[in-house]
Amino acid sequence: MKKINDFIKKHAIPTYFSLTFALTWGCMAMILGPGSFPITAEQFETAGPFVYLAMLVGPSVAGILLVGLVNGKVGLRELLARLLRWRVGTRWYVVALLTAPFLATVILLTLSLFSPEFLPALVTSSDKPALLLSGIGAGLIVGLFEELGWTGFAVPQLRRRYGVLKTGIIVGLLWGAWHFIVFWESDSFYGAFPLALLLARLIAWLPPYRILMVWVYGRTQSLFIAILMHASLVVSLNSIVPLALSGTALLTWLIVWAVALWGIVAVVARSNSSQFSRQPLPKQAV
Predict the structure, then answer these.
(1) Which residue, 12, 33, 119, 171, is most buried by CB atoms nearer than 10 A?
(2) pLDDT the model gives residue 186
(3) Residues 6+ away with beta carbon under 8 Å from 28
(4) Quick check: pTM over 0.70?
(5) Cα–Cα distance for residue pair 217/229, rounded to 1 Å
(6) R_g (Cα) of the chain, nearest Å
């Protein structure tokens, strides 16, 4: 047992990501059955909620488990302290809560000048409160369970070695790859894509958003704020971005969305150059 613990502590980061993928994809396979990938629309109709719950098992369970194994009770107490750290200043709440919805709304309203299919979902929905509340509910659940792992464990571990930019790119790329199976639907627009292009679709914009999340976390040391920032992204994608987008319109949205996020990263990085390129955090319990 000691050898296993020593191995995990020595290889904490690859262990975390390996366990996250194994738990998530393994639980999804158990729910859907063998040979069930790519996922079909019928499978989502019958098992959709359970599939999404299975996804959340990976990062949350792996994160809490690795914090306990690597840092023991001290690490778990510190994780709880970061989860409850909410006194961080109003500006960080503004950044965390408004970056994704504001940017998505501006992009969609601009694109809607060329085609009405880009009108934000909240504009066209016949039941706006229900759409918004469902998005907020999903966002808070997803944000909590995912960030217990991504920001609860992986980000602090990587920040001991790397700056904000490299940490965000590493976590963002793996975050995108982790989403792959649930977006790989055999009878959908995505399912018709070559696998490499589908993966590119996920990693085009998730890394820049994760870079911004790592930056905000570095300035606040608040897991609570990271959860809110993740939740605001989910709300934007579920309640603002039109779900009916497909074909060229969907590609247009994805390209503009990714370019805009990378643009924000460039602006923030320019004004925080030392933190983005270097300045790993001092070693501490995570």
Answers:
(1) 171
(2) 42
(3) 51, 54, 55, 181, 182
(4) yes
(5) 10
(6) 19
How far is it, in rounded angstroms, from Cα 226 to Cα 145?
11
Question: pLDDT class for 40, splitting at 50, 70, 90?
Answer: low
Residue 20: pLDDT above 80? yes
Residues with Cβ within 8 Å of residue 226, at least 6 apart in sequence: 96, 143, 147, 150, 151, 155, 213, 216, 217
Q: What angle do CA 126, 231, 116 make, to 5 degrees?
A: 35
Return the number of other C-beta atoms located less than 10 Å from residue 149's C-beta: 28
**Angle at CA of residue 62, ends 20 and 225, nearest 5°:** 100
Enter the tokens of residue 29: 């396979």
Tell me if the bond preceding 38 is cis, omega within 30° of 0: yes
Q: Assess contact for 127 and 118: CB atoms under 8 A.
A: no
CA distances (Å), origin 47, targets 23, 26, 85, 188:
17, 15, 36, 17
